[in-house]
Amino acid sequence: LHILASLLIFWNTPTTAQVTIEAQPTKVSEGKDVLLLVQNLPQNLIAYIWYKGQKTDFRHYITSYVIDAETIIVGPAYSGRETVYSNASLLIQNVTQKDTGSYTIQMIKQGDKTKGVIGHFTLYLETPKPYISSSNLNPREAVETVILSCDPDTQDVSYLWWINGQSLPISRKLQLSGNNRTLTLFGVTKDTAGPYECEMKNPVSSSRSDPVTLNLLHGLDTPTISSSYTYYHPVEVPKLSCLTDSHPLAEHSWLIDGKLQQSAKVFFIPQITKTYRMAYVCFIHNSVTDGTNLIIKSIIVPAELPKPYITSNNFNPMENKNDVSLTCVPKTQGYTYVWWVNEGHCVPLRDQVHPLPLDDITCGFILFTPDGPDFPRIFPSFTDYRSGDNLYLSCFANSNPPAEYSWTINGKFVQSGQELFIPQISTKHNGIYGCSARNSATGRECSTFKMVIVSGNDWPFLTPLGWVSLGWEQHVWRKTPDGLS
Ligand SMILES: *[C@@H]1O[C@H](CO)[C@@H](O)[C@H](O)[C@H]1NC(C)=O
Ligand SMILES: *[C@@H]1O[C@H](CO)[C@@H](O)[C@H](O)[C@H]1NC(C)=O
Ligand SMILES: *[C@@H]1O[C@H](CO)[C@@H](O)[C@H](O)[C@H]1NC(C)=O
């Protein structure tokens, strides 16, 4: 120590040289040995001194080698595991995390009155494989805060985090500590449950942890039932599924008439043939979060459908400003909804000019899709009548919903209804009879015409119709002369 102290007095300004220092092996892990190999030593050296850190002060002095005396002198920073060789290299045995960091070698020349030649080296250990520790691996969704840390706590490494294989998004829900070793998750949700990986990195190595995903506990919100209908057509009665978003999975029970019927997610309603009205309660329980909830589902299979009515999100819309949605309620399963605008003059809604006068809109539902009408047919099909006969015609066209019928004679409206009855007709009832079938749901209308010729004592008028009728009579007359005698 005396030698060193006297030497230190004369070192003033450092000079640089092409001294190189490298670690052998370049990657060293904890518990192994590493040699800090010094190359291109300057000439005429008398001593080398190794320091831990950047400073060449006595407190950080590890060991030195005095060439002339072939002597090693150890200092306050010596741990007992460092060996300096005559060629200036430093062996560190059984390295620990504490050995990482910078080292300085000071080389003193013969007759040098400066600080000598200084060389620096930073020793990094191979990073251990990190693992993620969590303050809570089973947090309750959205309410609990979780702290993740990347372990072991290691010197001279930087920490990086990944979520779902991506770098962390900027979010108020995620907060890194100053050195990035811990990550705080506020109110963990599905988006922030992971999987997380952390990485430790230094200039010589990096290593990544296994992924960790938080097991979010959540539930129970009010469940939903697979079918949102209340009214059903008998053939359409569904199975009911009680749907909940819960982790771990909730237990389901069905209460019907206050009695526990079944512990299952799906409930099969037996075939219903007559009017039926029942309330089903799906009761759910999550034993981990101790959450419970229920939903009540009414099923009505009516003998007759309920009277529909219209609800709106806005009954007082502002002209040209508000969109209005109208809903035909109640919801029915197996029926099709039909809208009528302006008192049954069926115009497809999309063609309407807005705003729609709500007073004029009605709705209803029908079984199966609206269709038709097809061409109507008039029964009976024969056309010749005798004066004094009763004329009885009926008209039918396939249509869903059933068509509305109306009758015309020679283009003039006579009456509505599916049947036309005129007692004791005479030749003045000759003419073209038309039946119109109209489907208010599809907005389509079809007409068929039929000739009615009444033969009688009167000679037909010489109207265009008369001529036709005359021709016909002649035809009949030839075929059955007795009938006209
Ligand atoms: C210095 O000596 C050590 C121990 O004998 C040896 O391993 C190392 O290779 C030497 N360094 C140089 C630069 O020769
Ligand atoms: C290495 O150091 C650890 C403690 O730091 C010690 O338990 C172990 O015995 C040492 N191994 C050798 C080979 O010196
Ligand atoms: C922490 O990580 C951020 C990126 O996520 C990075 O910008 C910052 O430099 C890191 N801080 C430290 C001390 O490593």
Automatic annotation (TrEMBL):
Belongs to the immunoglobulin superfamily. CEA family. Transmembrane segments: none annotated. Residues 1-17 form the signal peptide. PANTHER family: CARCINOEMBRYONIC ANTIGEN-RELATED CELL ADHESION MOLECULE 19, PREGNANCY-SPECIFIC BETA-1-GLYCOPROTEIN 4-RELATED. This is Ig-like domain-containing protein. Keywords: Disulfide bond, Glycoprotein, Immunoglobulin domain, Repeat, Signal. SMART domains: IG, IGc2. Residues 130-215, 376-447 form the Ig-like domain. InterPro entries: CEA_cell_adhesion, Ig-like_dom, Ig-like_dom_sf, Ig-like_fold, Ig_sub, Ig_sub2, Ig_V-set.
